[in-house]
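Figure S7 source data.
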Amino acid sequence: MTADDFRRLALALPEAVEGSHVGHADFRVKTKIFAGLNAEETLGNLKLEPGRQAALVALRPGVFTPHNGAWGRQGWTRIDLASAEPAEVREALWVSWRLVAPPKLAALHPEGGPRLRLASPAEIDLILDLDDDACGVYAGLDMDVLLSHDHPFVHAERARWLAGAAAGRLWLCEVDDAPAPVGFVACDHVDARPYLDQISVRRAHMQRGLGAHMLRHAQAWAQAAGELWLTTYADIPWNAPFYARHGFVRVPEAECGPELHAILESQRACLPAPGQRVAMRWTPGRGRRGAAPR
Ligand SMILES: CC(C)(COP(=O)(O)OP(=O)(O)OC[C@H]1O[C@@H](n2cnc3c(N)ncnc32)[C@H](O)[C@@H]1OP(=O)(O)O)[C@@H](O)C(=O)NCCC(=O)NCCS
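Tokens for the predicted coenzyme A complex:
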């Protein structure tokens, strides 16, 4: 793998940002460094529990090497990027992230829990398929929100999600009990403000908290900008009421920007129940409220 592959995997972790110190790139969660690159960007650096470090060093000699002295004893480990496999590095980065992240944040991403990773534009068909499957849930309400793949609305969606994947703001959700991703969250900017474009979970995996997990990720993505917008259905249990429980508030249309207006209009032109489409906004500090009565 290359240094850019390592960077991409590190930055896919929750709330990860790139920083630098003494000429080296590093990757931080809440200001704490969980990984880095050497100055030449040939070696990755991360932290493992000592037992896992010893096992990886024994299993993959020359790929994983402990740092010298106290740093190495604390678990800091070098990875020879040219000979490392992306899957083992992704797993090691998760371990390091969990060791370094504040306990409250780490608890939201337990080992064996859902994992988010950036999507690649080459995965656009998988993303469209996931969305078709997820939107089948509306059939239970006798609402058909599925449009043909030739419809201009779907073409526009495809173009936005391709751009989102290329720009690093579309994530896929993986779980241990499925061989392929089971959900995705696509973020964007509308009226120059962070916007949650779509969040979808395969029907077979709904109502296990994956939607909430991805929603929190989108909120973390938007945190620094101070707000996150979306459009949704007002009265559908997994739409506005779900978002309201995660701190979103309905916004009167007079307060929406021109691009958001245009989105609402394009949705009303081809989705069922057009009068039910509403805009919502979240601002940091508004977290999850009580669970819904089921
Ligand atoms: C919205 C969506 C992503 C939620 O995914 P999920 O993994 O089921 O999400 P969670 O398990 O975190 O929570 C789902 C919430 O919706 C409610 N919900 C979900 N499906 C429901 C159903 N069929 N009937 C009633 N309530 C339902 C649950 O009460 C739950 O709320 P709570 O945890 O606050 O009690 C998923 O339903 C989906 O993909 N829907 C189709 C696409 C869509 O509508 N996306 C949103 C576009 S605005």
